[in-house]
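Contributing new records

If you add data, match the layout below exactly. Sequence lines come first and carry their own label; structure lines follow with theirs. Keep one chain per record. Anything else will be rejected by the validation script.
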Amino acid sequence: MNTYVFDPVKPVVETKFGKLRGVCYGGVNMFMGIKYANAKRFCMPVEPQTWEGVKDAYRYGHISPQLGAPTPPPYYRGLFMHQIEGEDCQNLNVWAPKGNEGEKKPVFVWLHGGGFLAGNALEEYSFDGFHLAHYGDVVFVSVNHRLNILGYMNLSDYGEEFSNTPNLGLADLVAALKWVHENIEAFGGDPENVTICGHSGGGGKVLALYQMKEAAPYFQRGICLSGATPEAPASEIADTKVLAKAMLDEIGITKENIKEVYTVPYETLVKGYKKVAQKLYDEGHYVIFEPLKNDYFKGFPPFYGFDECSNQKPLIISTTMGEFGRCDLSADEKAALSEAEREAYVRGVFGEHADRLIELFRKAYPTHSIIDLVYLDTVFRMPTINAAIEKAKYGSDNTYVYLCAYNMPEDDFVPMWHGGDVCYAFMNEDRVYVANEEVYGQKMSRIFSSMILNYCKTGNPNTKELPHWDTFSEEHPATMVIDKVSEQKMAFDKELMDCLMSITEPFQFKPMYADNGVTAQIQ
């Protein structure tokens, strides 16, 4: 049993805006639902109001309204926390080690996944910052912000006041980082040592913040976990105004009565989206809400390069071997197959391309069963390498790439899925039961958490839990392959991925929660 105990003496800190009271457990001071900004609908965020007295920070704040209900995984894969939605969602949470007054600790800022459409800062129990603060001696911050329609709908055709509506979600994140910079010292954090980290859509948010001059002063390094954009964002190759007009036409809002957009129920906006999304998608139009390249946001790397405001900052960028990989065999069917039968199954999947793919897979992953080829990620690995190549062009020699190839103890052991590494990084493997396999679950936790903590503290992720890890460049394409036995490899899967990508349909984001039931679950 652990020895964590509750401390009845509640901590109080003084921020720029007023005093906050949290709770203390296990030597960690915790403050929930702190307002870092206020924002009217479709408007830029502004600083929160000051207050007198002491405000309690015990409860988790509102999360951004969602386009639809999430689909929780099986219980043993990690509990989801369904929170209360509200448009006043500009809030953050802080876990800070107690004591050592005057010592400035590294700050770790967590940006949740869900694309730019869904999710929240404590969507999964494994997103809790307690263990990383308790054992890692860092200040952990997680952020809620506007998503989907409220964060990224392009209303710029409807007046100057809407000129930056496609990037309001990013503007919230800038405001959150500014709040951290100005206030985190009161919690024991170092405002000059801030690492931003995100998974999936959160990783995309990390890359986006590298492109924003307004964000640059407020962080020193970043971690993008399975978040490199698979293709040039639709918002940068299509007219985002078409979707906005179709939605507003559907609910009866025009340029003449545009002010109604401020007060119409959010559910009505969602109804308009669901009515038009599938039809627009079928016609080849943009239907996914995400940031738009403009003077405020310089567009996603590697399509536009890394902006000079942050291109010298360290970056870890990663993928997992499995990501969204699927196999149509049940766990029992798969377990019953001999290795020869597994190869026959793979040949049935890949047909005329099987011989070459099997040869290249065995060269790249010699310790893996051949059936793992069916699960192999085709969404994030090559965009990750492309982003790393682009980042390394700026000569800062501080870009690190990893791929986690560990097989999770699920469905007769499958390559790590999308987001499987997050619980290990946060020392929360005990909250995702399937990840906490005897021996190797703990080993993965030590690897990922020590990597993250060393990087937060020094800018270098090397750890005694791994072989030496070199920085990445096009001439020296080093990937740390994390597995039961980890190894640094050079371009080890390039031929394999080139071959696999040549026969794979390009990845596309489809309508989410459209009227016909089509969904694109983005974690």
